């Protein structure tokens, strides 16, 4: 992504995207367009938020000018919808080098979002799509699909500071890279992205971006006393891994923030077996792990002044003669005994030991966990709003501010004491499900029971981590939710 002043915009470029604010889409409007150019696009009769294309002959073939009209009241959602339409147009054109001309400063307040969306325009999960559904003809050479990966040069009006915009774009590109990391990890199927493979991926990212990582194997997990985590893990032939990643880059404070991500690389439900219709996407049940790995990678890329430890307890929840059962009573790193009333409420068991580790071993000053934890959150909030439960106002305010900057919506749910009582057990210290009523809040409060009083926040991304169809916000598959919110929330917390 390169920047130039509007004055040097080439007139013979194969593909140019023009972005113009609604207020200037009229005769005498204030924009960088000449009168003749404006007359041409006025003929398109564009509506706000819509895209039109004018094709014409040029020396080197067909020339395409794509015009996008920015609505007067431009919001994050409206910008995403507009950019999705622009991206679709560029794919249809098979554009390789794209010049983007900002004709006025209508984008100024949302330029970071715009640059992030440009950096993600070619993202998607398609490397297993090779021969298609037709029979393979051995006599015919396979036609390689040309990858859609355009490069962009942006031309700015005089009213926008080029150096400031370049700085904003660099940061946006790093945030986009964190989202890409999360999407890639979450999209891989469980036969590829095992706990061991996830640890290897995290180790490679640590080496690439400059953060530390420790990986504990199955025996070490048992030796540490992580009985809740291991009770879930032991039913699978794929051995678990426990990952502790550190990025400590703020020597002005001893404060440490722990980010804890649920890392179920596959969830069958265990003996509380899921139906087939609910099991086919359960490779995405490590969306929380993907988010914290993406976030710590981004923080390292940004060289953010934070002290963050990301923790992932990675395993599968499977059925076997070794698997835990409904009715079992299991121990935990915290010393609490847990009655297992539902083996499909397994994520909170793995989080219990990971959160305990954050509180007692890392001695974190604040803890935020993130998990695809409950179906209830999707019922309550849908598939574009992440549920948040937090017992600390500073954590909630940081998450809320991060939501506003990232465009990823959040909604705070209650943490009243009477809700926590739903997790009371008659047979042990606590049970792993409080039932259907207020299910998202009671599941979150189960996790809080293992935080040892450390200020805590929880994001339930079960409704937002994965989508079975593409939208303006993300392509089909993993959305990458959490990576940007956690990054921005961490930075905010260390500014306080």
Describe the structure.
This protein is α/β, with parallel strands linked by helices. It has 2 domains: 135 residues, Leucine Aminopeptidase, subunit E, domain 1 (3-Layer(aba) Sandwich); 322 residues, Aminopeptidase (3-Layer(aba) Sandwich), CATH 3.40.630. Helix content is 34%, strand content 22%. It is built from 14 helices and 19 strands. The strands form 4 sheets. An 8-stranded mixed beta sheet has the order 7-8-10-9-13-17-14-15, with helices on both faces. Helix 5 runs parallel beside helix 8. The longest helix has 26 residues. It is elongated and about 80 Å long. The relative contact order is 0.12.
How are the SSEs placed, and which strands pair?
Elements: E1 2-5, E2 15-21, H1 35-42, E3 51-58, E4 61-70, H2 76-93, E5 97-102, H3 111-119, E6 151-156, H4 162-187, H5 195-209, E7 212-216, H6 218-223, H7 227-233, E8 241-248, E9 257-267, H8 287-302, E10 307-317, E11 329-330, E12 338-339, H9 347-360, E13 366-371, H10 375-381, E14 385-390, H11 393-406, E15 409-412, H12 417-420, E16 430-431, H13 439-448, E17 456-460, E18 466-467, E19 477-478, H14 483-495
Parallel strand pairs: 1-6, 2-4, 2-5, 5-6, 9-10, 9-13, 12-16, 13-17, 14-15
Antiparallel strand pairs: 3-4, 7-8, 8-10, 11-12, 14-17, 18-19
Helix pairs in contact: 2-3, 3-4, 4-8, 5-8, 7-9, 8-14, 9-13, 11-14
């Amino acid at each position: 992504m390169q920047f130039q002043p509007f004055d040097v915009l080439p007139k013979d470029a194969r593909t140019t995207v023009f972005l113009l604010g609604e207020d200037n889409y009229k005769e005498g409007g204030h924009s960088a367009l000449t009168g003749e150019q404006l007359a041409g696009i006025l003929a398109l009769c564009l509506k706000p938020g819509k895209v039109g294309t004018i094709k014409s002959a040029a020396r080197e073939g067909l020339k395409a000018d794509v015009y996008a009209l920015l609505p007067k009241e431009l919001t994050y959602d409206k910008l995403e919808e507009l950019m999705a339409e622009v991206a679709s147009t560029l794919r249809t054109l098979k554009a390789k080098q794209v010049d983007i001309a900002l004709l006025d400063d209508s984008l100024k307040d949302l330029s970071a979002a715009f640059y992030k969306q440009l950096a993600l325009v070619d993202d998607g999960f398609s490397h297993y799509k090779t021969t298609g559904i037709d029979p393979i003809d051995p006599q015919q050479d396979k036609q390689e699909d040309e990858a859609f990966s355009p490069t962009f040069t942006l031309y700015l009006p005089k009213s926008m500071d080029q150096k400031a915009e370049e700085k904003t774009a660099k940061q946006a590109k790093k945030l986009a890279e964190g989202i890409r990391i999360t999407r890639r990890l979450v999209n891989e199927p469980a036969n590829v992205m095992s706990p061991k493979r996830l640890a290897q991926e995290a180790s490679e990212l640590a080496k690439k971006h400059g953060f530390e990582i420790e990986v504990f194997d199955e025996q070490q997990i048992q030796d540490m006393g992580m009985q809740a985590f291991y009770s879930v893990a032991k039913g699978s032939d794929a051995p678990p891994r426990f990952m502790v990643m550190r990025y400590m880059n703020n020597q002005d404070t001893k404060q440490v923030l722990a980010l804890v991500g649920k890392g179920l690389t596959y969830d069958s439900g265990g003996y509380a077996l899921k139906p087939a219709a609910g099991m086919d996407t359960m490779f995405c049940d490590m969306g929380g792990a993907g988010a914290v790995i993406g976030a710590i990678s981004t923080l390292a890329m940004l060289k953010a002044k934070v002290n963050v430890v990301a923790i992932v307890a990675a395993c599968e929840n499977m059925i076997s003669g070794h698997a835990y059962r409904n009715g079992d009573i299991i121990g935990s790193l915290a010393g609490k005994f847990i009655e297992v009333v539902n083996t499909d409420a397994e994520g909170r068991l793995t989080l219990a030991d990971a959160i305990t580790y954050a509180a007692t071993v890392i001695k974190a000053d604040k803890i935020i966990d993130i998990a695809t934890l409950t179906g209830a959150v999707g019922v309550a909030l849908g598939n574009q709003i992440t549920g948040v439960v937090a017992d600390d106002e500073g954590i909630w305010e940081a998450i809320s501010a991060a939501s506003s900057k990232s465009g990823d919506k959040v909604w705070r749910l209650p943490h009243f004491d009477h809700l926590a009582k739903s997790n009371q057990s008659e047979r042990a210290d606590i049970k792993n499900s409080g039932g259907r009523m207020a299910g998202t809040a009671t599941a979150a409060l189960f996790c809080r029971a293992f935080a040892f009083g450390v200020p805590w926040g929880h994001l339930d991304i079960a409704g937002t981590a994965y989508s079975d169809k593409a939208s303006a916000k993300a392509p089909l598959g993993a959305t990458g939710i959490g990576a940007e919110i956690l990054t921005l929330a961490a930075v905010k917390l260390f500014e306080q």
